[in-house]
Design a protein that fits this description.
alpha/beta; seven-stranded mixed sheet; 19 strands; 27% strand; elongated
């Protein structure tokens, strides 16, 4: 039987904590899931070093090691993997279609778990020092900067929250914002501006990350007079938003103005038999354990959906 005419029970798009947890649960439910894992599989944890806040690992675990363990666990429960990107979908009929290049896969149901990607600045040195002082998650990496000097880029609530969190570890936190006022709520602004460890650099943006084996300083530009300066820091945290990976889902499920999937109920979508988990709907927490839990929920909802169809 070719891939084109084999109708599967469930296809899972994505292989981060949400997708892999969905695969484990649907596998245990004997739904024989097919996981379209992506060419770069494992989600954002594949670019993370030590993960200390995922339950069950007293001394922490390397991000790639954790994701590989979850893939192996899903395979042990009967999940099948395709390590390529989904390029197109068609959810207009009862049998859902997913394409990987020219290969078409069909299923009765689909779980969307392709996640989001952190918005980056695209400046020199940003990718070179990724996970070597450049991060997008203070909750994940803040503890590595105990008694260090760090910077956080942004002006919204998430930037304020991460700046406050970093003060638990860092000796000094520079909050760098390209405008002369924050977008964050007044309450969050007041907390930040009253904190002695935080210094705000207004009308400023980084234009280069500088270092040797890790970040040592930032080259900054004044957004008004274009003058430049250098700031010695041990780390740069980006808090300028996330982009959901939903470009290929346009017109197939309901999306909001930011591109996130609009949930119907807990994990349902606007299309019957299509479920969603993880950062496609989570705008707030952005944590592996949260998305894993949502992957469990989507899988259980899909299993219940199947039971009601029979």
């Amino acid at each position: 039987m070719t891939e084109e005419n084999k109708i599967r029970n469930v296809i899972i798009l994505g292989s981060g904590p949400a997708g892999l947890t969905s695969a484990i649960y649907t596998g245990r439910a004997r739904l024989n899931p097919l996981v379209i894992a992506g060419a770069t599989f494992g989600g954002q944890l594949m670019t993370t070093t030590l993960v200390e806040n995922f339950p069950g690992f007293a001394k922490g675990i390397q991000g790639p090691e954790l994701m590989q363990a979850m893939i192996d666990q899903a395979k042990n429960q009967g999940a099948e993997f395709v390590f390529s990107n989904a390029t197109k979908v068609d959810f207009s009929e009862d049998i859902k279609k997913v394409w990987v290049g020219d290969t078409e896969y069909q299923a009765h149901s689909v779980i969307l778990a392709v996640g989001s990607r952190a918005r980056t600045m695209g400046i020199t040195g940003e990718q070179e020092f990724w996970a070597k002082g450049v991060s997008t998650c203070a909750t994940c990496d803040g503890a590595f900067f105990r008694d260090k000097v760090v910077s956080i880029i942004g002006g919204g609530d998430s930037a304020m929250e991460e700046a406050m969190f970093l003060t638990k570890f860092a000796s000094k936190v520079y909050l760098i914002h390209r405008r002369d006022e924050f977008r964050a709520s007044k309450a969050m602004q007041e907390r930040v501006l009253k904190n002695d460890k935080i210094e705000v650099l207004w009308n400023t943006q980084p234009v280069e990350v500088i270092g040797d084996t890790k970040v040592t300083k930032l080259k900054l530009e004044n957004t008004q007079d274009k003058s430049t300066s250098e700031l010695e820091v041990d780390g740069m945290f980006l808090a300028i938003g996330h982009i959901p990976n939903t470009e290929f889902l346009q017109g197939q499920v309901e999306l909001d103005e930011q591109g996130y999937v609009v949930p119907h109920g807990q994990t349902g979508t606007s299309v019957d038999g299509v479920f969603v988990a993880g950062e496609l709907i989570d705008k707030k927490y952005k944590q592996a354990i949260v998305t894993a839990g949502m992957g469990c929920m989507a899988a259980m909802d899909a299993e219940k959906w199947f039971a009601e169809k029979e």
